[in-house]
Design goal:
Low-confidence stretches: none
Structural class: alpha/beta
CATH superfamily of the largest domain: Type I PLP-dependent aspartate aminotransferase-like (Major domain)
Oligomer: single chain
Strand content: 5-15%
Radius of gyration: 22 Å
Largest sheet: 7 strands, mixed
Helix content: 25-40%
CATH topology of the largest domain: Aspartate Aminotransferase, domain 2
Strand order of the largest sheet: 2-8-7-6-5-3-4
CATH class of the largest domain: Alpha Beta
């Protein structure tokens, strides 16, 4: 799994965005936009129909990919990214007097919209902590629900700890309580199977630029039949233009204006590439083999602190660490400048995680996020770099 174009940079920031993309994605994006870069479905000429066919085919592919209702692919609605989709879910579900249950694992794309509704909209929220291993106990979700609980929303895979939450168990609790269950699958879509029906998920929010291997600026949500979100925007849809209000039917209910067709093309080609690899399982196995190699190496380094990864069962290939005696940001700079290794440092837009694991005071951690195109050589180089950085930190602490 190596791209044709080589780079000296060792890129280990795939939880932020996957890079590089498969060559197939780059090529199809360029060819599609050059040959068919028109507005889909707005006109009846051949190019517009061709663009519309790609868009609708991707709806069906992703509906199938997420285990949605294949008889209702129109409920797969595209937007900018997962943050955009999560805002549509949260604002389209909650009203004054409602209660929402979420977790300390969430990204700010969940935390901030909820906090705004708590402050300004009369909504009540409960944040459920995770255990010492980085997992949320479904029973704690159950205990947190109340008669006015309208929504439970959970991050499937932590962008800090890499832990994968038990969505099926949480979803079963929500379905029995007749509470809507939404899942943020930003980190898992493309490497971990998502089956909305089996997991009792009502709504998923996804982004295209991470493990789905598409471009930035494309994402969306799938809303299962029987669940309705109130639209919180309005605008052009390209159909029924004389109607004075935004349309109620899907996908127009939650899509506004011209879609990002370059992004659509990237996701369409990425679905082809994933299929050519034999599905997501070989990709996940490749990434986790490298993650275990990285964790084993870190565990041998005096002064490297790991979090919630005693083992990598139910885990993504994302590890967050620190070096004793150093700020996370300083470690990231050394990795970049001295070793040409790209990681992500700081609070990772997930401040509640860092508050709970005690890294908030040291300005977060250093995140290593492995992707489909990383190699054993990349991992070994990262271990060597962290060994050297930890050695420097020990020498700095020694009395003169």
């Amino acid at each position: 799994m190596t791209p044709t174009e080589e780079s000296k940079l060792i890129y280990l920031d795939n939880a932020a965005t996957s890079w590089p993309k498969p060559d197939k994605v780059y090529e199809f994006m360029t060819d599609f936009y050059r040959g068919c870069g028109v507005n889909p479905g707005r006109s009846g000429f051949d190019k517009a129909i061709e663009a519309g066919n790609i868009l609708e085919d991707l709806r069906l592919r992703l509906t199938r990919f997420f285990g949605g209702d294949q008889a209702a692919p129109q409920r797969l609605c595209f937007g900018y990214n997962a943050t955009d989709a999560l805002n549509l879910i949260i604002q389209g579900t909650l009203s004054e007097g409602d209660h929402v249950v979420t977790t300390n694992l969430e990204h700010n794309s969940v935390i901030r919209p909820i906090n705004h509704l708590v402050r300004d909209g009369g909504v009540e929220a409960t944040y459920v902590p995770f255990d010492e291993h980085g997992f949320v106990d479904p029973e704690e979700i159950k205990k947190a629900t109340k008669p006015n609980t309208r929504l439970v929303i959970v991050n499937h895979g932590s962008n800090v700890l890499g832990t994968i939450q038990p969505l099926a168990e949480i979803g079963k609790i929500c379905r029995e309580a007749e509470v809507l269950f939404a899942a943020d699958i930003s980190q898992t879509a493309g490497v971990v199977p998502i089956d909305m029906a089996h997991m009792h998920i009502d709504i998923v929010a996804f982004t295209g630029h991470k493990s789905l291997l598409g471009a930035t600026g494309i994402g969306g949500l799938y809303v299962r039949p029987g669940v309705e979100l109130k639209p919180t925007r309005s605008g052009g849809t390209g159909v029924r233009s004389a109607y004075p209000y935004h349309l109620d039917e899907y996908p127009y209910r939650l899509e506004f204006g011209t879609p990002n067709m370059v992004g659509v093309a990237s996701l369409w080609a990425a679905q082809e590439w994933i299929k050519e690899q034999g599905g997501i399982e070989p990709i996940y196995e490749h990434e986790m083999k490298l993650a275990q190699r990285l964790l084993d190496g870190f565990n041998q380094i005096d002064g490297v602190i790991t979090y919630c990864c005693d083992d990598l069962e139910n885990h993504l290939s994302t590890l967050t660490v620190n070096v004793d005696g150093l700020e996370a940001g300083d470690v990231g700079i050394m990795l970049d400048v001295d070793f040409e290794i790209a990681t992500r440092t700081g609070l990772h837009c997930a401040p509640l995680v860092h508050r709970q694991i005690g890294t908030e005071s040291r300005h977060g951690g250093v995140r290593f996020a492995i992707g489909a195109f990383n190699t054993e050589q990349h991992i070994d180089r990262a271990i060597e770099a962290m060994t050297e950085i930890a050695k420097r930190a020990r020498e700095m602490r020694q009395p003169v």
